[in-house]
Amino acid sequence: MRPTTKDLAKAAGVSLATVDRVLNGRSGVRDKTVRAVNEAIERIGFERNQVAATLARQRAYRFAFALPRSGDEFLEEIIDRIREFDKAGRAEMVEADVIRLDDRDPHRTARTLSRLSPEDIDGIAIMAPETPQIRDALLRMRERGIRTIPFVTNQQEDGGEGFVGIDNRGAGATAGRLMGRFIGPAAGSIVVLTETTQSRDSLERRLGFDGVINRDYPDLTILPTLETHGDPGRAQHVLRNALHSHDDVVGLYFMGAEARIPIEVARALGATEGRVTIAHERTPATERALRTGELDAVIHQDPGHLVRSAIRILRAKCENRATLASQERIRTEILIAENV
Amino acid sequence: MRPTTKDLAKAAGVSLATVDRVLNGRSGVRDKTVRAVNEAIERIGFERNQVAATLARQRAYRFAFALPRSGDEFLEEIIDRIREFDKAGRAEMVEADVIRLDDRDPHRTARTLSRLSPEDIDGIAIMAPETPQIRDALLRMRERGIRTIPFVTNQQEDGGEGFVGIDNRGAGATAGRLMGRFIGPAAGSIVVLTETTQSRDSLERRLGFDGVINRDYPDLTILPTLETHGDPGRAQHVLRNALHSHDDVVGLYFMGAEARIPIEVARALGATEGRVTIAHERTPATERALRTGELDAVIHQDPGHLVRSAIRILRAKCENRATLASQERIRTEILIAENV
DNA sequence: CTTGCTTTGAGGTGCGCACCTCATCTATCT
DNA sequence: AGATAGATGAGGTGCGCACCTCAAAGCAAG
Hints:
- The structure is a homodimer.
- Chain A is α/β, with parallel strands linked by helices.
- Chain A contains 14 helices and eleven strands.
- In chain A, the strands form two sheets. In chain A, strands 5, 6, 7, 8, 9, 10 and 11 form a seven-stranded mixed sheet that branches. In chain A, strands 2-1-3-4 form a four-stranded parallel sheet, with helices on both faces.
- Chain A folds into three domains: 5-48, 434 Repressor (Amino-terminal Domain) (Orthogonal Bundle); 61-164 and 303-330, 3-Layer(aba) Sandwich (Rossmann fold); 168-300, Response regulator (Rossmann fold, 3-Layer(aba) Sandwich), CATH 3.40.50.2300.
- In chain A, α1 crosses α2 (16-23), α1 (5-12) packs across α3 (31-44) and α6 (106-114) packs parallel to α7 (132-144).
- Chains A and B meet through α4, α5, α8 and β11 of A and α4, α5, α8 and β11 of B.
- The structure holds a DNA duplex.
């Protein structure tokens, strides 16, 4: 039989109450006693039974996802996966909720976050831009005892607090490699389209993309990144302009998280015909475009995996456990028509 | 608060003992009573607390993976993931073990399986060829109350019992598409190498591969599949012969699960230079080859995902629960040097 | 009606732990 | 020495359910 807290108490020569104090990080225990208990844990190979611990808590783990209010199909996919997890998770005493943040107003976002209490929530995964207000709000939440983790959109890596999402530089490099190989021996230029070049994700993807193309495909020229700001009219305008002023465009790279608008615009302009076109994130729009041949490849991160990984990591933090690194690495997936 | 069995008993107008009988499928309950309880479950939205249920069982869930005795790096990866899960799973009262099967002798395999008792094991994931003896052994295990699921290597889909693994036809098609696109406008022939053409997996992959190449790349010719039988000498012999008799080989497709030998042989012959080369499954050997450029792409299924998915499905079967379909679909991943 | 079988109820036990209270003990300071 | 604060022990409760026993009730056939 596996050792229980009772065995641990005996092995450490202390009472169950003290074992409880040490295991759950309560105050009022001498360092020496803490060490004695920890030594006994090692010695007898004690491992807390998480099933019993969860039941004894008498409340479910409550996790939240703080997501931007604006967002298109990829965000919807993520929200669907959160709801799905929540539904299935209740039987396991884990709840997952969505909090929408006003991403235009960092102060308001910070205020929303500061209202969260450890009474209501055990941990939170946050998709938000990197601003001082938000960094500050995160710090204060952690002080209050709420576990946090950056989600999809990275925050500056300050405390090694983990991050759930892909390596965007690698994702850009992956797109670049496919672009180069799919174009083959032809020479020409590549149009890059995104919502905004301001975000860290965009910057990193572009860096990775440029790195591969510039090094390995000297016959290809990457044009300056065009911005859509999520506006179809503007998207159409900039894309049409680019195609007019460059008659040698052989590739299109839709770098942002929301490829729906670029795809629709490109379709209206007949821009994908004869050009290699690559986008990010599987959504209903990109999946359809892959099947029709308008898109040649999609670089993807699995939203279900993102959601479940964030929850597993937050939960492990609550329980002072390590996670399975192999399970939490979010893969940069390549999708083509044959494996969507 | 969520309804408990107590609430359910009251709502159904029966005792706790009867609720227990119905929930755990024990005998000696009239149909009418069963219906009354099920109706009450729907009405009040009862959902069993799996945490409490697991604790009350007073024993961990025990799952096993029945794997062939022969196998190379990919099998090792799977075993590593099983051990890893087992280690982490003990705190959650889930254990995972490995049973090696003598894959040369179906009778012995069947005998090994028939010795397993529901006392020792709750469910088993099986990677084994499709033979009458094995099919029979599986059937009898299920009758004894052990849950089973085919793993990586598919069994004939008889009872819709689920399957953990990729769609091999789709995987072959994916390889075919990448082969066609990477080769580009060049014409020539493609060498296909595998361990044995007898296995269902090989057949399906070849079907998918042929489908794409024959339809969309008329300038490419696929040569008859060469067999290595896991023997480096033989592999070298057949590959060298093929390259001698065809001076227009532009692509190599290593179709089997163990690409290590083909890669080493191709390296010795300098066969990958100037040819598009695609293999299956990420292993130390294929990962290295991707980085050196000997391989252009690897079609992969994640071993960690395979293992955890099998366990989740088996467990759900034990608890009479549904699984999250979105989580259990094993993806056919494409790996290139940039996203390994 | 009795006999024998099936169905149901009532009640208890324990899983391993979190969380709580209160009493006792120990070290430190004045 | 006594006062004070901190450290520890002893013991209890309950989480929601599985699993068990035994008695009682229902039901069918003869």
